[in-house]
Amino acid sequence: MISAVANNLLALYGALSKYGADITVAAFGITIKINQVAINVIQGVITGSQPIIGYNYGAGKYERTKKTFKFAILTSTLFLILATVIIQVFPMSLISLFGSESELYNEFAVMCLRIYMLLCIVNGLQNSTSIFFQSVGKPLQASINTFVKQIVLVPLCMVILARIMGVTGVLWAEAVGDGIAFIISVILLKRNWKKIFPV
Question: How far apart are CA 91 and CA 67, in angstroms?
Fold first, then answer.
């Protein structure tokens, strides 16, 4: 859904920019692929923690449950910090893996990657929280935490920011969505923590 909204907006506003629709859509496609690699790595770690959290929570071993949850957050966040440093410092090295294009294309591709992935480090907590709620029998909270960002926040931010900022607004929408989703995750955790761990 995010890709569909983004591609349409990038084609529309990209055509009005110096980059053109073809460059903006193609560069965004590369950014999505790089983003997906990072997400798949942390999702593997987080999903691997799910049965451990579920088993220990069901057995009443709350300290082990908390420890595993914190480990998932820490591990995924450390990886995303490393990924962010690489993306911000060496963006062209990643982009060149997909081929070399014109100077204008490279300029937009670098900007696209840097902006879109700017706040990806908060996804460690946000994604871990979704899996955590699933593991402890809180499907509503898990659904809110997952779908609010993907279905509501990012597409809505893309539409609003594109109208204000043009083609770059589409790129900033992911970072804004990540930041808001992070805040929602923290609020959900604070409101439900004592209910989940009564002792």
Answer: 35
